[in-house]
Amino acid sequence: MFDTIPAKNLEKYSDTSRYVLVDVRLPSQYWQGHIPGAINIPYESIVLPMSGLSREKTYILYCDHGATSLLAARKLYQGGYNVLSVIGGLEAYSGPMSR
Hints:
The protein is α/β, with parallel strands linked by helices.
């Protein structure tokens, strides 16, 4: 099974050679504001296998409140990817935002 992490611990996963931060919200939501360094892969776009995703990295998924990222994490985990889901999503995140 995959693990969950609190939003306050995201700084521990800043090594981009090992981790990829993924915003699973709609592109319009992503462009309104996202965590710096995050890429956007909307939940609806997750179809296995995911071309372009390395099985060597760990994907840290977040959404608005955490429910959609849990669903996305389950789907990617079942597809053989290393994943973590952010508990509480952006609602629990208090760091800087990018636009």
